[in-house]
Amino acid sequence: MTDAGDVTDWRREFAEEARSERPDLARLCLLVGAVADPAVTQADLDAAEIELDRLAGLLPYGARGGADAWVTALAELLGRREGFLGVPADYQRLESSLLHEVLRRRRGLPILLSVVWIEVARRAGAPVYGLGLPGHFVVGFGDPGDLHLADPFAGGRPMTAADAELLVAGATGEALDPSMLRPATPAAIVLRILNNIRAWASARPERSDVALWAVELSLLLPSHPARLRYERAELLVQRGDFLTGAAEMEAYATVMDAVEPSAAETIRRKAKAARALLN
């Protein structure tokens, strides 16, 4: 594929990659960017992959000293030499959630900067994983039970177990739960990225187009919240596709009948109101 703006093909590739036996995290994130930006071509995606390979080539393969040595090496390369880090203003930019833009700008949300770390480290042979702590995504090295963590948003600042506990307490007001320390799968990472994009768009009603494609990509993942089907229906109605939106609301209401009959009835009333907008 070489032509820009072929969204149908990008989405098909995204669906195929997401449901493959071993989904490629970088490829999935780059395909999100291709759907987001009609100007993106296959050459742009190839250039992003080449940049990840280049960065990995600047690291020693199989760094001696274990997990801490990897944290130090990645922080030196990506945080200090290459300038990958985040600032508060990054939360206001859609580009901060698109991998090809993050590679270009050296700025992004914590989860996208973590993707850069994961993909560069993986290519260099590091035992790396992503950790989706509440409110802040970080990376870990070595045995997940040992908690050798780094914060790419802070340029690779090493994190202790106590730091992780404080971060979780600040985000949730609760103690760190062991379930929060499970390495995130590629699908879970991409779903969280798409959730961030949806949150960005929800604060900007004029960008319902962004919210819609983010929901639709989320629905292509093998595991996703069922409620996204209803969110898509609402967005379709909001964007003037009343008939399709109403039909999808009714389909979702049928699913909800067995779980929350009262909620299903409310959704059917909204579907009826959407159809009335056609008159």
Automatic annotation (TrEMBL):
Pfam families: TPR_9, Transglut_core2. InterPro entries: SirB1_N. It comes from the Bacteria. Residues 67-195 form the Protein SirB1 N-terminal domain. Belongs to the UPF0162 family. This is Transglutaminase-like domain-containing protein. It comes from Streptomyces roseoviridis.
